[in-house]
Amino acid sequence: MVYITSWDEFVDRSVQLFRADPESTRYCMKYRHCDGKLVLKVTDNRECLKFKTDQAQDAKKMEKLNNIFFTLMARGPDADVTEAAGKDQGEAQATKKGRGRKQ
């Protein structure tokens, strides 16, 4: 088990791992509140990829990774994941539009 320090490398290798063997690939998240650490793990019983962080802004990155995996699981391993990652930005802008006091 190797901790990958770069987020982009972790995402790329995780997607490659899932596409190589979608039937046996698992994705696990573990959050320890007392330490404030989040550990993400992707494994297929032969290779194990881990990413550890204690930064709050990495929660948004985790949401994007969840959307990528949901897309791959629902549409199949050959699905285009660029729209899954880019869709969050459009939704975030749409939800910000209605917030605030009415004048």
The proportion of strand residues reads 15-25%
Q: What's the helix count?
A: 3
Number of E-state strands: 4
Largest sheet: 4 strands, mixed
**Category from helices, strands and their pairing:** alpha+beta
N-C termini distance: 55 Å
Give the CA-based shape: flat
Radius of gyration: 16 Å
Roughly what is the average pLDDT, rounded to an integer? 83
- Strands ordered across the widest β-sheet: 1-4-3-2
H-E string? EHEEEHH
What is the share of helical residues? 40-55%
Low-confidence stretches: none
Describe the structure.
With 103 residues, the protein is α+β, with helices and mostly antiparallel strands. The protein has helices at residues 7-20, 58-75, 82-97; strands spanning 2-3, 26-32, 37-43, 48-53. A hairpin with a 4-residue loop joins strand 3 (37-43) and strand 4 (48-53). Helix 1 packs parallel to helix 2 and helix 2 crosses helix 3. The longest helix has 18 residues, at 58-75. The chain is flat. The termini are far apart.
Short description:
By secondary structure, this protein is α+β, with helices and mostly antiparallel strands. The chain has 3 helices and 4 strands. Strands 1-4-3-2 form a 4-stranded mixed beta sheet, with helices on one face.
Question: What does the secondary structure layout of this molecule look like, with pairings?
Answer:
Layout lengths: L1 E2 L3 H14 L5 E7 L4 E7 L4 E6 L4 H18 L6 H16 L6
Parallel strand pairs: 1-4
Antiparallel strand pairs: 2-3, 3-4
Helix pairs in contact: 1-2, 2-3
